[in-house]
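Hi everyone, sorry if this is the wrong subforum. Our group has a chain we'd like a structural model of before ordering constructs, and none of us has done structure prediction before. Sequence below.
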Amino acid sequence: MTTASGKKKQYDEMAPEYNAYEDIPIARLEAELITTALGDCTGYNILDLGGGSGVYAREAVRLGAKRVDVVDISDSMMKIGRDIESKSRGKSRIRWLLGDASKPMEDQEVDILPPGEYDITMANWIFDHAYTVNDLRGMWESIAKSLKPGGKFIGVRAIAPGCFAPHNVTTGKYGCLRSDIKMIPGGFQCKATLLTKKPFSVGCTLMEDSYNLVDAIPREFGLTDFEIVPDAESETVNKDRKFWQEHVDDPCFAVVTATKI
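Answer:
Right subforum, don't worry. Here is the predicted structure as tokens:
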């Protein structure tokens, strides 16, 4: 089983390569869908759990957010974002906070806003690193606690059946190749290789409640109205419908939204 220190080491080691992720096809589609999900963020307080180098934190600021708190387990990932922000003009609206999204923020003394103060909480790809059902529960509890009533969750997650489709396990057509798939109680483990100019791999563990979009766990914490941001009519897909058809037929990821009761 991967430990918290093991997760941190993994992310620290891939930090220098991770920014190249933005160049692969799946990332370009993902970015468009998250921008759509964010919408007008004017005046919002936003929490970005597992936000890494702050790609979507910066997008939220561009869309008008008043404040974005990035929480990540890897200081090396966040350093990339801090360096980018240090070169921008004016006062940054992004804060960088070291913490594990699967653990209670208060137990880690992470300096986020009080419970129920965020308008939007993002959690992009973190569910693919929930190594146990308890990890997954912890992530959803952190998300739910942070949101104000009526607040919005936005997250990217791998989904079935596309997790096991040829474009994801054989050809890597969209820039990600899953291999070494091993079914475990409650989910599966695999290696995800991102096919950037200099490919790199990361170990993943996915729970059925997440990749099958059951969402029983987050509903326990007061999240409702789960929706997938539609990608079939996105600009990215429509620019090259033939290229994206396999993904449209068997999507390997989804941008999902929900609302806090």
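For your construct planning: DSSP finds ten helices and ten strands in the chain. The chain has a mean pLDDT of 93.
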